[in-house]
Write a structure and sequence with these properties.
heterodimer; A: 161 residues; mainly alpha; Arc Repressor Mutant, subunit A; 2 domains; 68% helix; B: 668 residues; alpha+beta; 5 domains; eight-stranded mixed beta sheet; seven-stranded antiparallel beta sheet; 10 helices
Chain lengths: 161, 668
């Protein structure tokens, strides 16, 4: 597959997929708390970047940004649909998972969206504050505050953490 | 700054140690076949990974299937096995029709009206709102849109304007980066409320993007525009607290609309509108869209909290149609005269998708009639095609819903007058019924205006809904455009050409009219009259905003015809001519209709009106307090009908434009 709008041959996209699909699904899973939806949005992200892949300097970074935006958008829709309680899918995952992980996971999914995104980008993607700030539209100082509050809440979910 | 992250950071280690086990427990399926199929436009393979999410969605889908089955049970003969008893349920193809199901006794369908809409180019947009609902930003794209230029500024050299009259707006430029410049019309008095509502527009993607905001400072709006110019699809606006609540798209096409008028058990009127996806009316930039759970309704429903009075209250982008439930007033905008939110929620909660046959059965219950085209249109989308804009199809004249044979004579059941009465004498009408102009007079232009329509090719008359125009009770007008030629004709008057209309005393017919943009190039590309056909062009379509530009029993200020409402105080009672002047390529057509203006019970001076014009609602309220009057909003953004005002001398009634700015104010 090629196109004249900056896309790459399908095999190049597939190469990107092979390298990054699992990580972006996991990232979406952390952000959404729903593995099935995470896979769908990860696939959406690949489809969206396909036409412009040839023109993107950092495809992996761009893919990640697209995915985070999709997840944030999707999360807000889900929250609105339920008048703000956590969506049904955001429940503890199936075993075998240590109880402390289950508790942290549940607490993570209950965090305000910006805190959840910030702490995930910080500690799961290892992004610097300024990049996180750019993605979520805040100042780096705000990011640090969000991460700090998120981490405090998560640790409260685990006794003696 | 803590960049970059230290891999040995104990917080990082702690976070990952708790999250990774969850992720490891659910490895991802291979998603490549689905991605490749989507990119190649091939059928998408089944997504196999079982998750709670999909299980939940499946349950919803099953519930929806049951619902649809209740609406459309299709009996099919078995193929080959001759199992004639086998029933299959087939969800109907989305027709875009929706009908109320299960409303309590007492609700009554009054009429169903179809409007052809206009030709529109591709559009899309989004809106962001904060939870406190005091800040909002809307973004819209129009492939045929344009950005403001210096030519859009009012010409203060127009006749009658003092020499030192300052322009009410200046052209503001903002550098959005990447070689993109945004333009906006800005109040030189630096009133933040005016800056906010005027918005910023920039050229990109072959059209024009426009952002409008309420509650945001100018710098904040420019910063948001920079981000949106770089990535108009971004969901995150980058402004703390603002979250995206809506994103919509609409392809280039006509924008037909169907209005279903109902009466509730208390006799209060309401209606719901059906428009093709993306075409539905939207509240202005000052509105807040609130996701709302409505009992009985599985489709997404939003409530529109709009400053002032915009009749649109609930709605949503549903399958096959954008829906808005409206409420109207029977007089004042108070609880005694308007259906409540609970009543509106009951209505929108009852709306269910319908097949063509179900829709037609529903139409057959209308007590006043339906627009003829609806009897034949199989789907909402068919109204955007071909011959919809036929005489009699565009609202107004209704036919008995039981008359379903195409081409058969129709019986008008509308209890009101079914055809406008032609007034060919100079005697004004005192009946209050519809009146129509003659063919008008044509005055040659000094210079040919090449971009304008040759009006001599069209037969044009002006209809007014009433021959009596009272203060505070605007009367709608309709241009009846007949094209006797064998080619379609576009009425191309645009923002560079100004149609004028208004009331002038019978004994002073040369009095200046206010210049107004009849076809607003920002929003409507014009009206096309097909060869050999007639199009009824209602005043509500002449311009999509403000007061719908009907005929008012108020003086006009010709200087402010473009950007401001330009209305003055109430006219004295007497005999007037309702006049419209349309500039054409080689001549200007003047149409006139005699009308009666009753003496206003409490005259309002020009000074009073101008004291309120262009104020925000809050400032207008404060002004009313200073004047010692009570304050009431009688119409708001994009109301499809002008509300009849309940006039009191001790109260100021204001109309708000689409941005929540006072467009008219009357004490009586």
């Amino acid at each position: 597959m090629t196109d004249d709008g900056g896309g790459l041959p399908l095999e190049d996209l597939e190469a990107l997929y092979r390298e990054h699909y699992e990580p972006v699904v996991r990232l979406a899973h952390v952000l959404l708390g729903d593995r099935g939806r995470a896979e769908e949005l990860a696939q959406d992200a690949f489809v969206r970047i396909a036409p412009r892949l040839g023109a993107i300097e950092n495809p992996a970074g761009y893919l990640r940004t697209v995915l985070v935006n999709l997840c944030r958008d999707d999360g807000r829709r889900a929250a609105r649909a339920k008048d703000h309680p956590a969506p049904v899918a955001r429940v503890a995952p199936e075993p075998p998972v240590p109880p402390t992980s289950t508790a942290v996971w549940a607490a993570l999914q209950s965090l305000p969206e910006r805190q959840r995104v910030a702490v995930t980008l910080r500690y799961y993607l290892d992004l610097p504050d300024d990049e996180i700030a750019e993605i979520i539209g805040s100042r780096p100082a705000t990011v640090r505050s969000l991460v700090h509050r998120a981490l405090a809440t998560l640790k409260e979910a685990v006794p003696h953490a | 700054m803590r960049d970059p992250v230290n891999p040995a950071d104990p917080d990082r280690t702690w976070f990952r140690s708790h999250i990774e086990p969850v992720l490891d427990a659910t490895p991802a399926d291979d998603g490549w076949p689905r991605i490749a199929a989507r990119i190649d436009g091939q059928p998408i393979p089944e997504h196999r990974a079982p998750t709670r999410h999909r299980a939940r969605r499946a349950a919803v889908a099953a519930a929806a299937a049951v619902l649809l089955a209740g609406l459309a049970m299709v009996v099919t003969a078995g193929r080959g096995d001759h199992d004639a008893s086998r029933l299959t349920t087939a969800p109907p193809a989305p027709t875009g029709w929706y009908v109320p199901v299960g409303l309590p006794d007492g609700w009554q369908l009054e009429s169903v009206e179809a409007y052809p809409g206009t030709k529109a180019c591709e559009r899309r947009g989004a809106q962001w709102t904060d939870p406190a609902r005091d800040r909002t930003l809307s973004l819209s794209f129009d492939a045929c849109g344009r950005v403001p230029t210096a030519d859009d500024l009012p010409d203060t050299s127009m006749p009658g304007a003092p020499e030192d009259t300052p322009p009410p707006f200046t052209l503001q430029e903002a550098d959005l980066g990447g070689g993109v410049t945004a333009f906006g019309l800005r109040d030189p008095a630096d009133d933040p409320s005016i800056i906010d509502v005027e918005g910023l527009s920039w050229k990109a993607d072959g059209g024009a993007w426009t952002s409008r905001a309420i509650g945001l400072g100018y710098d904040e709006q420019v910063a948001a525009a920079k981000r949106l110019a770089a990535d108009p699809d971004r969901a995150d606006l980058g402004i703390e607290g603002l979250e995206q609540v809506e994103r919509w798209t609409a392809p280039a096409r006509r924008t037909p609309e169907v209005q279903v008028n109902l009466v509730d058990p208390d006799g209060l009127r309401t209606s719901y509108h059906l428009a093709l996806p993306g075409d539905g009316q939207r509240p202005g930039g000052g509105s807040v869209i609130v996701p709302t759970d409505v009992p009985g309704q599985s489709n997404q429903v939003f409530r529109y909290d709009t400053p002032g009075f915009w009749a649109g209250r609930y709605g949503g982008p549903w399958q096959g149609a954008d829906i808005i439930v409206f409420r109207w007033t029977e007089g004042p905008t108070d609880a005694q005269h308007m259906i409540t939110d609970a009543g509106l929620e009951q209505l929108i909660g009852s709306l269910q998708p319908a097949t063509t046959e179900q829709w037609r059965r529903f139409l057959a219950t209308a007590t006043r009639g339906v627009s003829p085209v609806l009897l034949d249109a199989p789907a909402l989308g068919s109204l955007a095609e071909g011959t919809f804009a036929l005489p009699g199809n565009a609202g107004g004249k209704l036919v008995a819903p039981t008359t379903t044979t195409t081409g058969a004579p129709v019986t008008t059941t509308d209890p009101g007058p079914t055809a406008p009465k032609t007034t060919s004498t100079t005697e004004p009408s005192t009946s209050g019924g519809p009146v129509t102009s003659g063919p008008g007079t044509s005055v040659p232009n000094d210079h040919e205006q090449a971009s304008f329509t040759e009006l001599d090719d069209l037969d044009i008359t002006l209809e007014l809904a009433s021959g009596t125009i009272r203060a505070g009770q605007p009367v709608a007008g309709t241009l009846v455009l007949t094209n006797p030629t064998d080619r379609p004709i576009d009425l191309t008057e645009c923002s560079e050409g100004f149609t004028s209309w208004g009331l002038v005393p019978v004994d002073d017919p040369d009095q200046e009219l206010m210049s107004r943009t009849m076809i607003d190039c920002y929003a409507t590309p014009g009206v096309t009259v097909p060869a050999g056909k007639t199009v009824r062009y209602r005043s509500s379509e002449w311009a999509p905003t403000g007061l719908r530009w009907p005929f008012l029993a108020q003086r006009a200020d010709p200087r402010n015809g473009l950007l401001a409402t330009g209305v003055g105080g109430t006219l004295d009672g007497g005999q007037y001519l309702a006049v419209m002047e349309i500039p054409g390529r080689t001549s200007t057509l003047r149409l006139s209709v005699p009308v009666t203006v009753p003496e206003p019970p409490c005259p309002t001076s020009d000074a009073v009106v101008k004291r309120y014009l262009n104020l925000t609602e809050a400032k207008a309220r404060a002004q009313a307090g200073r004047d010692g009057w009570t304050f009431r909003i009688v119409s708001g953004p994009r109301a499809a009908e002008v509300i009849e005002q309940d006039l009191r001398c001790g109260r100021i009634n204001v109309d708000l434009d689409q941005n929540g700015i006072v467009a008219n104010a009357l004490r009586s």
